[in-house]
Amino acid sequence: MAEIIDGKALAKQMQTEMAETVKSMQTQVGRPPGLAVLMVGDNPASAAYVRNKELACERVGIRSFGKHLPATASQNELEQVIQALNADPNVDGILVQLPLPDHLDAIALINQIAPHKDADGLHPYNMGKLMRGEKGLQSCTPAGVMQLLKNANVTIAGKTAVVIGRSILVGKPIAMMLLEANATVIMAHSRTVDLKAIALNADILVVAVGIPQLITADMVKSGAVVIDVGINRVTDDEGKSSLVGDVDFISVKAIASHITPVPGGVGPMTVSMLLHNTIWSYCQQYGTKYN
Ligand code: NAD
């Protein structure tokens, strides 16, 4: 039976440690770190995510600079907000909450964020650094996955890692991070022929697709480490709604060596890595080392 990788516990522990760092840095520099989350419109899921991030900031002592704009906001208005945040010395991290309404160009907006304040690690400058294997701001969910593997003492070097999903947000950056950690990385995606045969190679299997329980026990090698990034809301026959991952947790748990649950696995780590990135930018500004 697999060991459950508890992301909730690790995220909490990280936040306790970050609160200590913030406290001591603030005494030295005279201001707390600041994170600006830019939200457009009233998508309830986005509003809940933003609230969650703001509460986590509060716990750690990071000041929130929430910017909530109406769904009708123009590209130009948003660019001006980003420029003002880029210039604000109290703001260390800027995040655009996705998805944005259809009339807005998310990529163009992310490109406007000053790379040293790019808390989500999605700016081409930071993605380029990741590609080159250089230290920089890294995308929060994949960085959280790497922390989970590290904390669970999973050996990565020399192992075969299969990443299913090739998004800019998760699949591609996690593949680069695993490669940097000396895994042999295979990427699978929607056009992969025979996903099962590919997945069965994995010593470390990372699934970021968005299809409930796509990965079943027959697709997983015995003793593999399984990281489930997917978050899917499903409704059962009695109309009860719940969250499930991309992995069939019950059956895969029986053969994997380690597995992340959904919820309580990768999800909580994403928020902690966002706070981590904000503190990293803040410390960089004052020449203090922070890993
Ligand atoms: P995305 O839609 O941008 O990308 C999905 C990827 O899955 C694509 O690259 C596609 O090629 C691949 N894919 C689609 N169908 C496939 C199939 N049948 N077989 C193999 N590959 C297939 O999604 P995303 O933003 O990368 O998110 C993926 C999942 O992770 C979603 O469920 C999302 O909610 C979740 N997510 C979770 C967190 C977190 O904090 N835990 C963060 C981001 C995303």
Number of helices: 10
CATH topology of the largest domain: Rossmann fold
| Average pLDDT number | 97
What is the H/E string? EHEHEEHEHHHEHEHEEEEHEH
| Major sheet description | 6 strands, parallel
CATH architecture of the largest domain: 3-Layer(aba) Sandwich
Low-confidence stretches: none
Corresponding CATH superfamily of the largest domain:
NAD(P)-binding Rossmann-like Domain
Category from helices, strands and their pairing: alpha/beta
* The CATH class of the largest domain: Alpha Beta
Percent strand equals: 15-25%
Determine Rg (CA atoms, Å): 19 Å
Strands of the widest sheet, in order across it, are 1-12-9-8-6-7
Percent range of helical residues: 40-55%
- Terminal Cα span: 33 Å
**What is the number of beta strands?**
12
| Chemical compounds bound to the protein | nicotinamide-adenine-dinucleotide
Task: Explain briefly what this protein structure is.
By secondary structure, the protein is of the alpha/beta class.
Main features:
291 residues, alpha/beta, Rossmann fold, 4-stranded parallel β-sheet, 10 helices, 16% strand, binds nicotinamide-adenine-dinucleotide
Report on this model:
- By secondary structure, this protein is α/β, with parallel strands linked by helices.
- Strand 10 and strand 11 form a beta hairpin.
- The longest helix has 23 residues, at 7-29.
- The chain has helices at residues 7-29, 44-60, 75-87, 106-112, 124-132, 140-151, 171-180, 195-199, 249-253, 266-285, and strands spanning 3-4, 34-40, 63-64, 67-69, 93-96, 160-164, 184-188, 204-207, 225-228, 232-235, 241-244, 258-259.
- Helix 6 (140-151) crosses helix 7 (171-180).
- The protein folds into two domains: 29-118, Rossmann fold; 140-268, 3-Layer(aba) Sandwich (Rossmann fold), CATH 3.40.50.
- The structure holds nicotinamide-adenine-dinucleotide.
- Nicotinamide-adenine-dinucleotide is lined by residues 141, 164-167, 169-171, 188-190, 192, 195, 208-211, 229-232, 266-267, 270.
- Nicotinamide-adenine-dinucleotide (NAD) is lined by residues 141, 164-167, 169-171, 188-190, 192, 195, 208-211, 229-232, 266-267, 270.
